[in-house]
Amino acid sequence: MDDHALGKSLEAQLMKALIASGVSAASALAHLVARARGELRPLEITRDLRYGTSPRQRLEVWRPRAPARAPRPLVLFLHGGGFQHLDPASHWSFAERFAQAGAVVVSAGYRLAPRHPYPAAADDARAAYRWTVDHARALGGDREALVVAGASAGGNLALGLAIGERYAGVAPRACVLFSGLLQVSDMARLYRRGGVGRLLRARMASIGSDYVAHPQAFSLPAAADPRLDPLLYLERSRALPPGFPAVFASSGTADQVLDDALRLRACLARLGAACEVDVVERAGHTFQSFTFRADARALWERAFAFLRAQGVQLVSARSSGAAS
Predict the structure, then answer these.
(1) What is the per-residue pLDDT across 59-74, written as a single tens digit (0 to 9) for each?
(2) How confident is the model at residue 321 (pLDDT cuts 50, 70, 90)?
């Protein structure tokens, strides 16, 4: 490795470490505040459930404690972190929002790059989906009202499931994408227009090089892989995949992946899919996790309204109590 490449690698590692430590610390602090305020009291949280042999193949299940008259909507949530770091604990607020609205939430970890490059994360997302379907009844969830959701890199995995995952006759009813990174190839598109600092550029570039063991494959004139570049796959499609669900995507005007959401809206409109893309002014990447912010809470309410229109009976989460 020459000095220039080594410098880029060190910059990417530094930025990854800074982001991971910052996100984890902020998430842990917010979790402590939520516990102190009693906001988590209405919820039952089960951690460290296994769906595979790797330490990363672990699940958290979040659900309301109150008894339900019927099976609850079921959400499989996949965390972000550029396929390289973070876990369900760092993304607890996403599971909490869905659970407060009355869902049973399976928040899944997965194997991470560069130790486990593609297709490890996509394979794990598929295995977590199948675990969720298999355990729906025991969890009190309705697998006919199954939502796949993800933040950032997790949005990539969720959209890949929406395109191709059909297990035991169950297809997702809806797909929810929070600041989804929907294309892994050509990561330079995220900073080509400028306005992104040197360390963050190195970090973005490392996502593709860490996750894809053979990035030269991107130069081949082949069809896009729906589990790697689900956005490109849909843009190149002439028709919707069978059983493709309704999609709600959100991003902010200060979000580096905003253009992915706008491209998704355009191609799904062409294909005739039920789709809503919600763009929030001056909001940054994964702002949806900052549920103390009024704009994030309002976004969640719009997402729940969209899901209700698809037959997923979530309730308003404006109150602090969980739905029964």
Answers:
(1) 999 999 999 999 999 9
(2) very low
* pTM of the predicted protein model: 0.91
Spatial separation of the C-alpha atoms in residues 23 and 29, rounded to whole Å: 10
Would strands 141-151 and 104-108 be described as parallel, antiparallel, or unpaired?
A: unpaired
* Structure confidence at residue 221 as a pLDDT band (50, 70, 90): very low
Q: What type of residue is 74?
A: L
Alpha helix ranges (H) inside 46-183: 92-100, 120-134, 136-139, 153-164
pLDDT in tens, 237-261: 999 999 999 999 999 999 999 999 9
Instruction: Give me the pLDDT at residue 319, please.
Output: 47
Minimum mean pLDDT among 51-65, 135-149, 198-212: which range? 198-212
- Name every residue whose Cβ is closer than 8 Å to that of residue 230 and which is 6 or more positions away in sequence: 156, 159, 160, 162, 163, 182, 183, 224
CB atoms within 10 A of CB 113: 23
- Just give the CATH number of 3-309: 3.40.50.1820
Strands 141-151 and 72-78, how do they pair?
Answer: parallel
3-state helix vs strand vs coil in the chain, percent to 5: 45, 20, 40
| DSSP H or E segment with residue 208 | helix 198-211
Closest of 241, 214, 223 to residue 119, by C-alpha: 214
Going by C-alpha positions, the residue among 131, 146, 78 that lies closest to residue 314 is 146
Nearest Cα neighbor of 60 from 82, 43, 84, 35 is 43
In angstroms, the CA 154 to CA 156 distance is 5
